[in-house]
Amino acid sequence: MNKNQVAGAVKDAAGKVQQKVGEAVNSPEQQAKGIAKQVEGKTQKAAGHVQEAVQDTNK
Questions:
Q1: CA 52, CA 36: separation in Å to the nearest integer?
Q2: String of b and e for 22-55 (b: at least 16 CB within 10 Å)?
Q3: Which element (helix H / strand E) includes 11?
Q4: Domain residues of the chain, as ranges?
Q5: Cα–Cα–Cα angle for 27, 4, 14, nearest 5°?
Q6: What is the pLDDT of residue 33?
Q7: DSSP state of 58
Q8: Dist. CA 37–CA 10, nearest whole Å
Q9: Which of 20, 55, 57, 58 sits at 20 to 30 Å (Cα–Cα) from 48?
Q10: Given phi > 0 = left and psi -120 to 50 = alpha, else beta, which region is 26?
Q11: pLDDT, tens digit, for every residue of 7-49?
Q12: Where is region (Disordered) located (predicted)?
């Protein structure tokens, strides 16, 4: 697992928490920020998967 995969997973988890907190306090803004953070995290994690696949191919 490379740093992009780890960082992406952390952002995704943080985004889920932020979204749930936004739901709990009835804040659409926080919910949207949480969803955006999840998307960013999933994208970064996917980039890490691609990066790892390329490295494995070059071995």
A1: 24
A2: beeeeeeebbebbeebbebbeebbeebeeeeeee
A3: helix 3-24
A4: 3-57
A5: 20
A6: 98
A7: T
A8: 10
A9: 20
A10: left
A11: 999 999 999 999 999 999 999 999 999 999 999 999 999 999 9
A12: 1-59
The two structure tokens encoding residue 13: 């988890």
Q: How far apart are CA 54 and CA 50, in angstroms?
A: 6
Structure tokens at 55: 């490295």
Question: Residue 46 corresponds to which amino acid?
Answer: A
- Can you give the three-state secondary structure of 15-56, one letter per residue? HHHHHHHHHHCCCHHHHHHHHHHHHHHHHHHHHHHHHHHHHH
